[in-house]
Structures are given as structure tokens and as C-alpha cells.
Amino acid sequence: MSTENKTETICRSCIDCAAGACDGKHGTYPSFCLTADIKDGGEAAPLCDESMDKYLNDPEDSLIAKASATVEFENYCKMTRIEEICEFASKIGAAKLGIATCVGLLREARTAAEIFRHKGFEVYGTACKVGAIRKTDIGLDPEQESLGPHICNPILQAKILNEKKTDLNIVIGLCVGHDSLFYKYSNALCTTLVTKDRVLGHNPAAALYQADGYYSKLLK
Description:
Layout lengths: L2 H6 L25 H6 L5 H13 L1 H17 L5 H11 L4 E6 L4 H13 L3 E6 L26 H10 L4 E5 L5 H8 L3 E6 L10 H5 L11
Parallel strand pairs: 1-2, 1-3, 3-4
Helix pairs in contact: 3-4, 4-5, 7-8
């Protein structure tokens, strides 16, 4: 398929916009703008109404939304992410924090737990290899055990933290996909402290910043 044909098949959305009008900037809504469509009573308008109903009438969603916005307002460009997590946890009344960590980041997880405990939170953590289940036991090829014999077990991590009745779970460096399963099975609200990217020192945005330089290979 030619580049021209590929372009024609793209369904434009917010990720294709640089106007920023919905963010209060002095821009013009593009023809494919979701916000403009909502304001004109388009197909996403009912979804917007449903969202507003959650913010206004669901006690938990309202608390989380207001706490999130307040943490941003009070600490924007002032606090690190771990400080913001502490602030957010306090504002939503979370007393017991769960940590779901990669075993490769246990040192960082221990430091995070020390900080959370210093701030007065109870903390309980689970590492990704909990249960020590062999990879071949879930049908993976034996050759995959060359990187270590045991699976990452995010479902068990989530279920253990569910049993401990944590109020807020914090992900530290779970692999892509393993984090998805953890979010899926966690009963508690989740946030992420560290996103794993071993190549870039756990700073995956660096590849985006270098997309027109060293990592232009990603677009080829």
C-alpha cells in the first residue's frame, strides 16, 4: 500500500491535532475535532454527558477527579511523581498502599516503601515472580527459561493485594502486558510510579523525543 493510500485510511482524532483549542489555547478546532463534535451534539456527546454524570454524582469518581486536579494545581512542576502519589493518596483517604513491583526493581520498591511509610502510610508489596511458577507450566517454550525459569505473575500480585485490602496500588516497573494484567485484576485504584524501559533507563519518552534523530528507525 502506498503512503498516500495509508494517509487516506487514517481516522483523524486528538492525536493528530496541534491546535490545543480544547486546552484553552487560542486555536481553531480542526474539522475532525472531537470537542467540536461534542459541542455540536455529535455521536460523542452522550458519552460526555455520561462522564459528567460520573464526576458529579458518583462519590468515588468525584473524589478521585477532584483530588487529581487539586494535586496538579497545587504541585505542578513542584513535586516529583512519588510526592504527588503521596499527596493524591492522602486526598482520597488511602491509608494502605500496595506496591506491585518487578523483581529487578526491588531496590527502588524498597526505597518507595520507605518514603510511603515515612509519610504515614501502611505499605504491602508483591514482586512479579511471586509463586515461582515455571514458564513451561503455562505452556511457554523451554527456551524462554533462558532469561529465568519463572513467569511474571501479575494476576497473583493483584489477587494478593486484593486480599490485603489495599486502598491504592502502585506499579513499579512491571513489564509491558504484565502491567495490563495487574490493572485488570486489581480491585483497588492503580497508579504507576515507574514504567519499565531498560534500554532508556526507565524513561520511555526519550524514544519519542528522539523520533526525528537516533530513533527515527522506529518510523521506517
